[in-house]
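In the current project phase, the collection of sequences with tokenised folds has grown. A representative record is quoted in full directly below:
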Amino acid sequence: MSRAQHIAKLAHLFGVFNGLIEGGVEVVRDEDGKGGIVDDILVYRLHEEKYMLCVNAANIDKDWAHICEQGKEYGMKAG
């Protein structure tokens, strides 16, 4: 998958973040699609096409379930 495709998928899932450089981090909203917010998430750009998501430990199960469900639409796999 290309860098542009990764960014498009993450941007759709968590709102728009442009210009996130390697080693950078941005706080994004995990929205529920109904006008609500599931949680805030830190998105780290580790490499050109590798990202790491850091969620609130108190909401990890809820956040993980929501991220996995939303990601299915884009062919994303947990791992």
The helical segments are 3-14, 60-72. The chain has two helices and three strands.
